TrEMBL record:
It comes from the Bacteria. Belongs to the FGGY kinase family. Residues 256-447 form the Carbohydrate kinase FGGY C-terminal domain. Pfam families: FGGY_C, FGGY_N. One of its GO terms (molecular function) is glycerol kinase activity. GO terms for cellular component: cytosol. This is Rhamnulokinase. Coiled coil: none annotated. It comes from Biomaibacter acetigenes.
Amino acid sequence: MTLIYNLAADFGASSGRLILSKFDGDKIELEEIHRFSNDPVRIGSRFYWDFPRLFHELKNGLKKAALKGIDISGIGIDTWGVDYGLIDKNGDLLSNPIHYRDNRTDNIIDDIEKIMSFEEIYKVTGIQYLQLNTLYQLYADLKFRPDILEKADALLFMPDLFNFYLTGQKYNEYTIASTSQMLEVFSKTWALEMLEKLSLPTKILQKIIMPGNIIGKLTKDIQEETGLPDVPVMSVGSHDTASAVAATPLEGENCAYISSGTWSLLGVESKEPIVNEDSLKDNFTNEGGLEGRIRFLKNINGLWMIQQLKKHWQEHGIDVGYGEISKAAAAVKNDGFIIDPNDKSFLAPLNMATAVQQYCINNGQGEPREIGEIARAVYNGLAREYKARISNLEEITGRKINVINMVGGGIQDEFLCQHTANITGKTVLAGPIEATALGNILAQLIALGEINDLSQGREIVKNSITQKKYTPQ
């Protein structure tokens, strides 16, 4: 078989990469060809993504791919969820996209619930209650930036925005749109009646395109700047979790997944949305996946908390790496500290260490002081939350979960994997680390007709990786 080469551009909340894949018909090999940090910027009272720099880095990665001198069959882009850019009728970006951790949505939920209750919204969208959802961000634009909203001709989620400036084509890809809380969960179309009731503009919404399609080819300007020819840009599971779940080698309905990174996304795959009183009560979400599948899951604040602890300690002259933090947490004698990772105090604190300490003090646990004690409070909180949500999943779906497939960069933290097995009492299968990039590539290969479907793609993933097994101790 002729080797097939594709590019996956994976933008995470703290870094981005361009990854070159090589598919030989049986296995996929990945090569990271460009990596860069993703550094949000606070200007005045607002917290922005630096989109121009991110697009610059994307083009740098495409230039490196061109220098390889090989035929690239396609490009796919995935990013974090919910955030978006607004462009005018000339195709100009009206403002840098605002970060989902910005505080402009702090009281927006209260404003919306004066018009529609969350229960009403959930019945339409099936999306969990989170103040960072696009629905609340767009309502904040209506309230605080009406002038920008009036000039907007199109709302493009982050991967859509990258795709637009690569191809000139405007679409909203289904999996990323499904994170917005603005889609009807069963029809997979815009919830126009709900949006109009909230006085939100619907003319800026674009046609929904499903994963596994060609969006367009690189514009002549991009071709000239990067040295790549007219390579097709594909619609993939452009929400990074959709791509990660696509590449998770689930063995059946008795498996749950945790996509572990900045966030922990814990859930199961379902053929149909699950919207009922129990899913509402437990605040589970129904997001889109490849082949129209539903990711029934819970968003849990994840290893971003450890990232912020590391950043804090380094800023205060303590040069400590992730491995050292993990080992310190595992070895600590006073291991009873525990936080609730979903508490609002951990969404965007200026000092994560102080936030953890204050939470423990406020909840009668005393004060964790050492690096290991503070980190252990986070690990304990994550593992206990996983256990609670697995129990919810079993109750809501009627499934008995025996295995947790953990994927993503977080599985490099072996203490987290083992601690998860110990606390949940479930077997943990860790791998692949590069689940998001692999899922991105699978969607491209399906679009190209190189593989038949997601089931075949998951078998290819299993052939391409080594998983590590953790049993409860």
